Give the backbone structure.
Amino acid sequence: MPHLDLSQKLAILSDAARYDASCASSGTARRDSRDGKGLGSTESSGICHSYAPDGRCISLLKILMTNFCIYDCAYCINRVSSNVSRARFTVDEVVQLTIEFYRRNYIEGLFLSSGIIRSPDATMADIVRIAKRLREEENFRGYIHLKTIPDAAPELIEEAGLYADRLSINVELPSDQSVQAYAPEKNPDTIRKTMGDVRTRKAAATEKSHTGKRGKRFAPAGQSTQMIVGADESTDATILGQSTRLYGDFKLKRVYYSAFSPIPDATAKLPLIKPPLIREHRLYQADWLLRFYGFDVAEITATTSDGNLDLDLDPKLAWALQNRALFPLDVNRASKEMLLRIPGFGTRTVGRILSTRRHRKLRYEDLLRMGASLKKARAFITAQDWSPGTLTDSANLRATFAPPPQQLSLF
Amino acid sequence: MYTVPLPRIGTDIAWRDAARRLIGAGVSPEDILWDFGAEIGELFATATPLPPLTRRIKAPQSFMALADTVVWHKDPQRFARAYALLWRLRHQPGLMQDRGDPDLAKLRQMEKAVRRCQHKMKAFVRFRDLRQGGARRSFAAWFEPTHLTIEPTAPFFARRFADMDWMIATPDVTAQFVDGNLSFHRGQPKPDLPEDGAEALWGTYFCNIFNPARLKVQAMTSEMPKKYWKNLPEAAHIQSLIEGAEEKVQKMRDAAPTLPPLRAERITRRLRGEDP
């Protein structure tokens, strides 16, 4: 292997890490360094320190420890059968990069992942060593997200949780069959078992013992996972069903959807496609509806016959158009649950409606000031000075929202 | 008529103090001229002294939080608008919950703009290493915020970068953090900061974390507007990344599948237990 300098390694190992969608740095415990003995802080919301031209936020230094890997996952740039350049950081290099980037305010912290080298345990132990060095020797109080390696020993996962804000393990593909077909060395049961372990340990850490003491903090920002969309044949109904189970069974903070995107030196098993970015976007919208708007999967995916989301319309609007009998709703009387189902109303708008209508009746203008998107909402609501008349049931209502046909050819 | 001078440093406290006195004395909004930076005061040195603080003035907590933020907005009307709302609150105690009220909505909008500006400052300040030696490392940055947000945002940097000395210079006010003490000084022209080798590494990272198959320039610029680019070292790469994206992806697509490296088969067989 030719000798690589730090910059060359960084190029290879960040290129290899970019297919992981998560860059979140929010929702962890509050820390700071006001005592003057350490570096860094975390507050309730994360910070996106930059944006790449792919529109994605750069919050963390997202790198692989190494992109050498003994597994052969078809969708992955780092699979053993690929001819990409390989590199490996030393512990010291990762620590120095993190600290020096952090001091210049480039990042919120580190997101460290790795190819599997030698064995899952050996790889996980190296990852933990880096996190431990950052926390205990460098007194680093910024954000750390560690990818847990499937099949690694539970003791290592437990240690990782003491240093990391967030742990994640990717389910990779929406169904067990797909994982078997495209990631033959990975075992979906093992992945779920690891998630279950993390959940149990996190719950144990927040419980008080009989002496009233709490356990040591364990991954305060919780765990997340990622599914690749568009590499296999899974429908959106399958994907969202899987997400619902993951949120329910393992109390995940987030499920990330990653549109399958061309990689260098792809395998013949998985031909390269244009990444299905709109589909990814609709899945995120649906995911939000499931978590914050009281919808369930069946309602959202019933809008089309093939189990996929309507690409032309956001899923809430698509649902409302099919359930027009429930509308229009009176914004001055409708329940919170029903307000949340109005297209163009977000959770904040609904909160504002509820707080204001305690004092007075709402008019159309008020809704504008509250941040509602009335272009979408107006057909579905009545207010003190607004009634949609026949608009709600008009035959061409869908056409006023769907993009004109020629735009479709782009995707 | 009261002309109320407000200093550039400590504007929030000065405004709050003046508003308390004025509302306590029942001075209506039309009788007040807010003089930010004390510029008018010097021309017409006829300022009536503010009324004394005679009683405890109660205002909703949510109003105080709103006022503490909007005072950093650049709109010259901000002080008058906040005072006018305080004036209305005397007889309309529920007003703060009315999200449809136009006066309040305008102030909320200004508050949001200031918060966004603060958030962008936390995100986009880029320190350079001054390499001065000594027990504490020292760093400095030049930043041009949209509003006057260095003062309310500096405590964030103090909480985060407490083990180093730093300075953030802006055109209006400069924040300095030395040996754990935060202080503010009048603004200055852009200082000449030494080159920092870490910027090249950061650029390398920026270029390689970018996925050319997902080009979405508008999503980038809506969160990182061009006005910030001149002080962001990584922004120098944006143009070439955009221009080269399509070709890069096409190359990936056109490349014929390659033969796996020799080691691959050996590793896979061992892993699947097919090797003796």
